Amino acid sequence: MAAPVVSGDAETRVAETADDAAVSKLSAIRSGYVTDPFLPLFVRKHSRRSPLINRGYFARVAAVDAILRRFIVTARRLGAGGGAQIVSLGAGLDTSFFKLAADDMAPTTYFEVDFPEVTQRKAAIIRRHRVLQEAIAGRRVGAAEVAAAEAAGAGGGGATDSGAESPMHSHARRPGAAALGRGGSGGVGGAAHPPAAAAAPAAAPAAAELAPGITMRANGAGGMDVSGGGYRLLTADLRDVAALQGVLTAAGIQTGVPTLFLSECVLVYLEPEDSCAIIAWAAATFPTSAFVTYEQIRPFDAFGQIMARNLEDRGYTLRGLHAFPDIAAQTARYRELGYARCTVADMNDVYYRLLPRAEVARVERLEIFDEVEEWHLMSAHYCIAVAVNDPHLAAGVAAAGSSSSASTATASGSG
To answer: Where does the pLDDT of residue 220 fall: very low under 50, low under 70, confident under 90, or very high at 90 and above?
Structure first.
């Protein structure tokens, strides 16, 4: 692995943002915004977040989930045995694989990559819950079965709450400021200090033995790798593309299969040269691929400055924020690094133009919402980019991330 470009403490803090992300997402689930029976297995404590945060998670989860599903449908139509791969970079405690598998929508292989601290904890939770192992092994697991496992285990023994809302949300209480932030593909935010009980033993005992077809092993990086069916949990440092490629290759990734790379508030934590190296490698190595990114933008106005400063005060530096500060820069980034088509929309555009109107109307009836101005400000400072390097994928996947006012560019510069 590459020599760290941040201190060990900073690396740990970034990894631990998965905790607050999972707790915040669970709030959206418990409040009726999002359906996900699996996440409670990964979260030890429930803490209710504000309507602003719940709505933000709804928009993000709904948009990313729609893109993943459209990618899988499109990849299956392309033939090649119906193969499809998803690579979740900085996956955190995300449960997308389990949700897709429950709906018979899982790709051929779903790869999750994260720091050692995260893969250790996620592997421990998988070992603890037989129902997760059976989902990995290929059996469709229903919501009632997952709920029974949650009740039996008294929670996942994974993420815990820091006792306050995410620091990236905490300044929502200041005039004209609110924000959502990092957490790997499964998360948003991060605690000011690592949650004290995050690494504590779980309440539920580990399964006596792993389900058939599931393997777990410690790796040389200090993490745990899990393999079974179409699921791979892997440990890698994203700042070292050669090491990342080696880990994925050893896990069986295929360069000729349609592949979607997913980064939710992950690349923005890397130095620009490191994040660009990942994108360029993905575009060049996987000729039929999509790269989907959710991250912060617009750091130069008052809201953006408060957002960045709030994070830096807590030890989190968004190293890529100023390098790719707006929709135009994000669009150019992917085009220049090898993706022929890129569509970028901020979260206002996503929420008001792209998400199903009936679902948005349902969500807006859930809670009293008097933070409309803050909602619009927050949503304007986050975007989803969908970059595609194959025209066959573009017809399906890119359509999930486009609208009449989003920035869309192709290699020829038309749009």
So the answer is: confident
What is the C-alpha to C-alpha distance for residues 99 and 76, in angstroms, rounded to an integer? 18
**Both tokens of residue 258?**
């349609």
Dist. CA 415–CA 404, nearest whole Å:
11
For 345-380, the pLDDT digits (tens) are 999 999 999 999 999 999 999 999 999 999 999 999
| Helix, coil or strand: residue 111 | strand
CA distance 19 to 80: 38
| Residue 262 to residues 40, 67, 204, 221, Cα–Cα distance (Å) | 22, 10, 31, 22
pTM score above 0.70: yes
**Lowest-confidence segment of 18-22, 248-252, 310-314 by average pLDDT:** 18-22
pLDDT score for 232: 98
Query: Which amino acid is residue 263, in one-letter code?
Result: S
Structure tokens at 255: 């360069």
SS (H, E, C) the chain: CCCCCCCHHHHHHHHHHHHHHHHHHHHHHHCCCCCCCCHHHCECCCCCCCHHHHHHHHHHHHHHHHHHHHHHHHHHHCCHHHCCEEEEECCCCCCHHHHHHHCCCCCCEEEEEECHHHHHHHHHHHHHCHHHHHHHHCCCCCHHHHHHHHHHHCCCCCECCCCCCCHHHHHHHCCCCCCCCCCHHHCCCCCCCCCCCCCCCCCCCCCCCCCCCCEEEECCCCCEEEEECCEEEEECCCCCHHHHHHHHHHCCCCCCCCEEEEEECCHHHCCHHHHHHHHHHHHHHCCCEEEEEEEECCCCCHHHHHHHHHHHHCCCCCCCCCCCCCHHHHHHHHHHCCCCEEEEEEHHHHHHHHCCHHHHHHHHCCCCCCCHHHHHHHHHCEEEEEEECCHHHHCCCHHHHCCCCCEEEECCCCC
CA–CA distance, 28 with 142 (Å, rounded to integer): 20
DSSP state of 7: -
Q: How far out from the chain centre does Cα 210 lie?
A: 27
Does position 201 have pLDDT exceeding 50, yes or no? no
Q: What is the pLDDT of residue 406?
A: 54
